[in-house]
Write a structure and sequence with these properties.
heterodimer; A: 259 residues; alpha/beta; Rossmann fold; six-stranded mixed beta sheet; 7 helices; B: 274 residues; mainly alpha; MetI-like fold; 78% helix; globular
């Protein structure tokens, strides 16, 4: 039986201003990778911070299997690695496991490090890591707590293009291995198309859902394949049509999901 | 991953770097004192300066050496170091507790900080009469005075360091459901360690200042007593010798603290070591 992340009527205001986000209604199937894309300032990160429990919504709710999302359901990777500079790689990866007894923690950390391919670097300090490696450590830290919901806030946008591609492949492997529900915030259409089975376009101010797509392209997705190209054109069209003169228009242009 | 192509791990190169580069700065730092001592000695021997005002380095060294032979020097050194040590520990402990409290809790800061900052602007020597009235002329008043001097830099640096910890790291703590105390222990304190070490070092510097002040206000032993004794008995060699002892002790204790700090702060991604 499929289960869902249900977001309904979610609104966030900062101060007394007009809302920054919402209302947003979304249904995301669990166990999948969903991508939220859109321009800067459309509330993508705000949406993620609401789901992560870092902000409180002014209205609405987000449910996982009919229950409010609990902090222990969630793993987060931010745009920057945000590693604790005084802890080595193993210490950072085990940061969320402090409630466990030491041997158990050590085993879990060793296992995650192995899966992300950082076992040889367990004793390094963050200052000795490249940007891509640091972000892999951040990914490992988020996965170590075995979250049901992995929230990624433009996790690869600060990396160089080649590292970004390999990190995307890497994320797919990790997703297959651990099977969390992934919500990926991105402004990179190619990234969304390469990874996600469900793409949500946010737009406007306050940010709202402009369109949803289900590009069920077969894996591995070649970025040069005709179907990939077609989807890219569609996304470009949608984003280009979302002109600023109609910022609050909500038109779900395509729904592939029978939810 | 470019660092792997050099065939040695970056940990090795990190450990090797300070050791290899240590002798050179040490020699450079010694160059000037040695040169000054030589010129000074020659100036005294050739009669260029009157020895009853500025005795030669060799005369100063002889004075200290004779003092050491009778065991008096060790006694005075121990008295001063004991006072400073005890005052430093007390002042640093109070500064740490209150600095951590006001740094981590805005409520505590609003309640406590204005009063503490108000007390800070009292020149610390102004406390002397009060401490003597309260605690007598002997050890207790001296140690409390030193502790007061050490307290403020430790308090201030720790409070500022904690309140300036990167919000992004704190969010990582929130995502991992850290409670208030766990947040302080696992993120705020380690992240503020660099500022804390700075505070301890300036606290120690002020501690030396106050130990002299305390010993000048009346003591029968200690390096500060040697200063007064030398002045009253007209022995400039003793006065200058005591000053040099302070210089050596101050530098040595700061070096010790800096070393300790650097070994705790090896994770810092900075250009040089302080």
């Amino acid at each position: 039986m499929p289960s869902f992340v249900r977001i309904s009527g979610l609104v966030k205001r900062f101060g007394a201003d007009a809302p920054a986000l919402g209302p947003v209604d979304l249904v995301l199937e669990t166990g999948r990778i969903s991508a939220v894309i859109g321009r800067s300032g459309t509330g993508k990160s705000t949406l993620l911070r609401l789901l992560a429990g870092l902000e409180r919504p002014d209205c609405g709710q987000a449910l996982l299997d009919g229950r409010p999302i609990r902090p222990e359901d969630v793993g987060v990777v931010f745009q920057e690695p945000r590693l604790m500079p005084w802890l080595d790689v193993a210490g950072n990866v085990g940061f969320g496991l402090h409630h466990l007894p030491r041997p158990e923690r050590r085993d879990l950390v060793a296992e995650v490090l192995d899966v992300v391919g950082l076992a040889a670097h367990a004793g390094k300090l963050p200052k000795q890591l490249s940007g891509g490696m640091a972000q892999r450590v951040a990914l490992a830290r988020a996965l170590a707590v075995r979250p049901r919901l992995l929230l990624l806030d433009e996790p690869f946008s600060a990396l160089d293009p080649l590292t970004r591609l390999s990190m995307q492949d890497h994320l797919l492997e990790l997703w297959r291995h651990y099977g969390p529900t992934v919500i990926l915030i991105s402004h990179d259409m190619d990234e969304a198309l390469a990874l996600a089975d469900h793409i949500v376009v946010l737009d406007g101010s306050p940010g709202r859902v402009l369109a949803e797509f289900g590009p069920e392209l077969p894996h591995p997705r070649r970025r040069t394949s005709p179907s990939f190209e077609r989807w890219r054109h569609r996304l470009v069209d949608v984003l280009a049509s979302s002109t600023d003169n109609q910022p609050n228009r909500r038109s779900v242009m395509e729904m592939r999901y029978a939810v | 991953m470019a660092e792997l192509t050099f065939g040695r791990s970056p940990v090795d190169s990190q450990r090797r770097r300070p050791r290899a580069s240590l002798p050179m700065p040490l020699l450079l730092g010694l160059l000037l004192p040695v040169l000054v001592t030589l010129i000074w000695e020659t100036a005294c021997r050739t009669g260029l300066v009157p020895p009853n005002l500025l005795p030669a380095p060799s005369a100063i060294f002889r004075t200290l050496y004779r003092l050491a032979l009778t065991g008096d020097l060790q006694l005075h050194l121990a008295a001063t170091i004991d006072r400073l040590g005890l005052g430093f520990v007390l002042g640093a402990a109070a500064g740490t507790v209150l600095g951590a409290l006001t740094g981590a809790s805005p409520l505590a800061r609003q309640m406590l900080d204005p009063m503490i900052q108000g007390l800070r602007s009292v020149p610390s020597i102004a406390w002397v009469p009060l401490f003597i009235l309260w605690l007598g002329i002997f050890e207790a008043s001296k140690i409390v005075l030193i502790a007061v001097g050490v307290f403020f830099p430790v308090y201030l640096n720790l409070m500022i360091a904690i309140s300036q910890v990167d919000r992004k790291l704190i969010e990582v703590g929130r995502v991992h459901r850290l409670g208030r105390w766990a947040l302080v222990r696992r993120i705020l304190l380690p992240a503020s360690l660099p500022g804390y070490v700075t505070g301890l070092r300036s606290g120690l510097g002020l501690g030396w200042m106050f130990v002299i002040a305390a010993e000048l206000m009346g003591a029968s032993e200690g390096v500060g007593f040697l200063l007064i004794d030398g002045q009253q008995t007209g022995r400039p060699a003793l006065v200058i010798g005591a000053i040099l002892l302070f210089a050596l002790l101050g530098k040595a204790s700061d070096l010790l603290l800096a070393r300790l700090g650097n070994s705790l702060l090896r994770w810092q991604d900075v250009a040089g070591e302080g």
